[in-house]
Amino acid sequence: MNRKPRIVVVGSSNTDMVVKTARIPTPGETVLGGEFLMTGGGKGANQAVAAARLGAEVTFVAKVGMDLFGEQAVHEIRAAGVNTEYVTGDPETPSGVALIFVEESGQNSIVVAPGANASLAPADVEAARPAFEQADVVVLQLEVPILTVAYAIRLAKDLGKRVILNPAPATALPSGFLNGVDVLTPNEIEAAMLLGAPPGADFQPAAAARALLKEGVGAVVVTVGAEGAIIVEAERSDRIVRVKSHPVIPVDTTAAGDCFTGALAVGMAEGMLLAEAAGFANTAASVSVTRLGAQASMPSRNDVEQVLSEFGHA
Ligand code: RIB
Q1: 20 to 30 A from 258, CA-CA: which of 52, 184, 274, 310?
Q2: Which residue, judged by its Cα, is nearest atom 9 of ligand 1?
């Protein structure tokens, strides 16, 4: 391909308020935390920024409030090189915000106030049809209304485009929703939730991936944290491909999954085979967890190439 890969991301934009803490407080408890960071977040925006930093031409479709947070969020996304032509303002609702605690281990917990993300409508997706027409890959998550996500899946499929759905945050979906999705990228919690598995049930990523393929998905890539990812494709569902992670000392795992999905989209749009694209995505995600913040942690192409040239594919 002698042009940049083209990716459309439809999804959320938040302002993340991040506090580092020795441990996450229990209900009713106050703890004194450490470093504070206010930075661009939102699963959609994070994936858009990840893909742009890795070299893709990215168009983002989103809704922000007409306030300072929305203005700053759009400014940061644009500064990362993302086309924000289809990011519109909602005059009645504040911009999305996420409150994030990050423990010393790098683990986090997040509460999102969706704000304007909840008013991203099918009509906003339809307005971005020209960008869909030009796209190599369309990327979606579940932090905006599912009717809007469903519309985006159908529009992309009608135009013959490949769709990656990152089913985050974890939620159950109506029957038939996943039909036509080319690549689904759940983590273990999201995969279990999609399958209606009881909490704490013994989780087998490969079995979960095979069960999800029955929903009409082309391939399932289950991310398993520091273990990497496993891939099962509908065409060869007897075969399990494992992609390992590079060992790193995590600082903040926030948005590692977003980095993975954005990078996977770049790899696929560049024509890599799914396993190769997942290896590239795993390397990108392993760099992102060594940095604090969501968009602030997304690596450049150079960062990823450097790890690959030093350590090779994990
Ligand atoms: O996936 C991480 C993201 O989830 C954060 O940036 C936060 O905004 C929430 O959307």
Answers
A1: 310
A2: 42
pLDDT of residue 197: 87
Residues 102-121 have pLDDT tens digits of 998 888 899 999 999 999 99
Q: What is the pTM of this model?
A: 0.96
Question: How far is residue 43's CA from residue 54's CA, in Å, rounded to a whole number?
Answer: 17
Nearest-angstrom CA–CA distance, 1 and 274: 17
Give catalytic residue positions.
258
pLDDT, one tens digit per residue, over 148-190 is 999 999 999 999 999 999 999 999 999 999 999 999 999 999 9
Q: How far is the CA of 2 from the centre of ligand 1 (A)?
A: 33
CA geometry: angle 70, 76, 80, nearest 5 deg: 145
Q: Work out the end-to-end distance of the chain between its first and last CA atoms, rounded to an integer number of angstroms.
A: 26
Cα(227) to ligand 1 centroid in Å equals 21
Residues 2-13: tens digit of each pLDDT: 899 999 999 999
For ligand 1, the distance from its centroid to the CA atom of residue 87, given in whole angstroms, is: 18
Q: Whose CA is nearest to atom 10 of ligand 1?
A: 42
Measured by CA distance, the residue closest to atom 1 of ligand 1 is 255
pLDDT band for position 59 (cuts 50, 70, 90): very high
Q: Is residue 282 within 8 Å of residue 245, measured between CB atoms?
A: yes
Which of 86, 84, 95, 68 lies closest to 14 in space, CA to CA?
A: 95
The whole-number pLDDT of residue 313 equals 64
- The ligand 1 site (C-beta within 6 Å) comprises 12, 14, 16, 41-43, 46, 98, 110, 112, 143, 254-255, 258, 294
Residue with the smallest CA separation from ligand 1 atom 2 is 255
